[in-house]
Amino acid sequence: MRLQLSAHGHHTEMVTACCWTPTNELITCSDDQTVCKWSLNGELQGEVCKVDSYITSLFWFKPVGKQPADTFAASCCDGTIRFISGAGREEKRVQAAKHGAVISLRGNQDGQSFVSASEDGSVKVWSRSGNLRSTLAQISDPVYAVCWGPDSDQVLFSGGEFLNIQTLQSGKKKMRWKAHKGVVTAADWNSISDLVVSCGEDCVYKVWDSYGRQLFQSAPFDNVLTSIAWSPSGEAFAVGSYNMMRLCDRTGWSHCRELTSSGSVMQIDWTSDGTLLAGAGGNGSVLFGQLVDRRLQWGNIEAVLADPHKVRVTDVVDETVEELDFRDRVLEMSLGFGSLVVCTATQCHIYSATNWNTPHIFDVRDPVRLIVQSATHFLTIDAVKGVQAYTYEGHRKGNPRAAGLRPEHLSRRTVALCGDAIAILDQSDLKAVRLFDVETGRPFSNNIAHQLEIVSISLSQSSLGKGGAADRKLAFIDRNRDLYLAPIAPTVAQRPVKLHAQVDTAVWNDAADVLLTIADGKVTTWFYPSAAYVDGDLLRLATEHKDGGEFGKLPEITSFYGTRAQVRRADGAVTQTAVSPTPAMLCEFVGGGKWEEAVRLCRFVKSDALWAALAAMALQGRHLETAEIALAALKEVDKLHYVLFVQSIPSEEGRQAELALWRRSPDEAEQILLQAQPPLTYRAVKMNIRLFRWERALELAMESRTHVDTVLGYRQKHLDAFKKRETLAVFKEQLAELGGKIDWDEIAAKKAAEKAAEAERAGGGTGKAVEAAGGDDEAEGKESHK
Fold first, then answer.
1. Cβ–Cβ under 8 Å, residues 374 and 419
2. Quick check: 236 pLDDT over 60?
3. d(C-alpha 567, C-alpha 573), whole Å
4. CA pseudo-torsion sign 328, 329, 332, 335
5. What is the DSSP letter of 606?
6. In 316-398, which ranges are E strands?
């Protein structure tokens, strides 16, 4: 990615400020005391007005409700702020500084307020109509830089060598830290990435988090840095200096350096779609910069934005090149899952990797700022429709809407899509992830809640069974860099499970239920992360590790398709790492019900990790024969014996209940047994006895009016073994009703009758089935390996 700069001249003196209107027209002001309007292509549309003072900063109001976007505010050297209509008429003037100039103006996210910074050291918050709301700060140094925080409840401003964060709410702690060795000349705070960039007279720029911790510092430049500004997406920022403009990514690494002849770049402003920027030149010129050479890769296809109206697609295997021309500027594009989606200012074009000549096209009302793809759908995100789902034929699907989504703050880290669900990180509560149906846009009945703030989310793209959303998993990383896994199905009552700590990045494979992470200097491939809900031991075995030191600190996996993953290092270099193809092949076999082929694959590869993954998949899919083979290959004797015990149970409900118990879901197991026809009451009671849930076992026995003596008998044996006396009143009462005696012959007869009935229903009354159901009671009642 690089900037394509062009300079245009009209002003006779230094251009001090510039800003884009909501209709993508540029307004500039100069020391020649004129305000001019420019088109998107850099053509002068005329002078708006003349001002009897020197303007230092411009800010155009956003449209709010019925209030049109036809007014801008200008700060002046005489300490005033002037409200000027788009036609050039001065509507209002307020005195903002007691002495000296008002240096900077910035509007908040909702367009209802703006903040001013002055030479007298005051920072003030104003209403849209120009009424003073509060004097936020008063310091001894001139304030050259000011901007709003992501939620418009904090203001960042400079003061000498320091940066300050002040909240609008009283009682909250202020922040102040030394940012540069010289005066801070410019700063910006992005609402999506929550990162701060600053530059100063020490000729360096720095990247900070919202707590004032430095993440990056550039090498010193030859001249003082005079301007800096984030792209609205938060993925890049631009830095201006004398005869130079530099484009950097969010980590601080430089994409390109463009030399100009414009003098010092006094201010930089981006269009709302983030594809075009403007710079105010110190010699009177106006700079227009287009983002070009954006590169996307998927499989053997590479798409490059050659210029604002052309995308060049190259197949590196066939060595074929296709050039796609568009009448409007390309705002956003995405390549993946065999499709290229390109959004211009007015249309969305959908190309198939097998046919570049006849795309599906539909109109868009507002500039699209983000595209997220899955195998069957893609999302577009804009300011009007918010999050909108489409098929690759261009058919409109779900449009999730809920308070707190705030689409203008969403990014690839906070939105995830799979074939049947949309996950969106709630911007009003960063501890919650909202889930929606792709087809209808309706919210799921459950959301995923966490104890800490979540920083990134990712949805699995493949499910092994036919359960759809019931088989999907969401992986998310919280503020402590811990990786968690959570099911998204509304009917699944399972809590998030922690997979790993100190995780830098995590991405699902595009076709298989395989997760790739980089954590603590190691690249880890999780063959079957859902094993966390089956058996923790199998989860730990079903992983593959390799050294990831080559990726350095804070790497990011940008894509993971097939057997290749693309990783971007902190210095901006893009590298690739290879992943074993066997986990994806295993997922494909199991997803197609080809258990024999899956076993043959594991025998051929001879990998314990693959055997562990197969064992977990077989247990999850209730294919006990395959689980027996896999556990035998792993030499997990205790688990193997338990599988053999489960296989000996004649009824399907009994086997399902034992597998649910293996997954540590006793309530689910009990529900399965009680919903059987007829109910397997004895198994439910005995299961609770084995789990030492005595009160629940007695409650079930009393409700069914049977096996009360069974519970009391086993309870008495348990107390006798530990030489204890009964202390629970309900057990004393029931024992008193039985006369204080337990008839074990009657208990054995009832057990045998229920087992025989279960065996007859399951096995047609054969002797083998009866023997399996009524086998050694100690073997049946033994404690499992759990």
1. yes
2. yes
3. 8
4. positive
5. -
6. 320-325, 330-336, 339-344, 347-352, 355-363, 370-373, 377-382, 386-391
Mean pLDDT value of segment 366-386: 90
What span, in angstroms and rounded, lies between the C-alpha atoms of 33 and 13?
A: 9
Question: Does residue 72 surpass a pLDDT of 50?
Answer: yes
* Contacts for 606 with CB less than 8 Å, ≥ 6 apart: none
- Estimate the share of the chain in helix, then strand, then coil, as percent rounded to the nearest 5: 20, 40, 40
Least Cα distance to 207 among 176, 253, 252 occurs for 252
Q: Is the pLDDT of residue 523 over 60?
A: yes
In order of 231, 297, 588, the CA distances from 235 in angstroms are 7, 18, 35
506 - beta bridge partners?
517
**Alpha-carbon span 155 to 457, nearest angstrom:** 28
3 state SS for 91-154: EEEEECCCCCCEEEEEECCCCCEEEEEECCCEEEEEECCCCEEEEEEECCCCCCCEEECCCCCE
What's this model's pTM, rounded to 2 decimal places? 0.85
Tens of pLDDT, residue by residue over 436-480, are 999 999 998 888 999 999 999 999 987 655 445 567 899 999 999
pLDDT > 90? residue 111: no
DSSP H or E stretch at residue 459: strand 454-459
Burial class of residue 78 in the structure, from the number of CB atoms within 10 Å of its CB (0-12 exposed, 13-18 middle, 19+ buried): middle
Residue with tokens 């846009």: 441
Secondary element (H or E) of residue 5: strand 2-9
Domain edges within the chain:
14-291, 524-647, 663-786
Bigger pLDDT: 495 vs 79: 79
Give the count of beta carbons closer than 10 Å to the beta carbon of residue 328.
12
Residue 389's closest CA among 352, 333, 442, 326?
A: 442
Assigned fold of 14-291: Methylamine Dehydrogenase; Chain H (2.130.10)
Exposure on the CB side of residue 641, measured as CA atoms within 13 A: 9
Within 13 Å and on the Cβ side, how many CA atoms surround 598?
Answer: 28
Dihedral sign, Cα of residue 109, residue 111, residue 112, residue 115: positive
Rounded distance between C-alpha atoms, residue 667 and residue 706, angstroms: 20
Q: Are 268 and 286 in contact (CB under 8 A)?
A: no
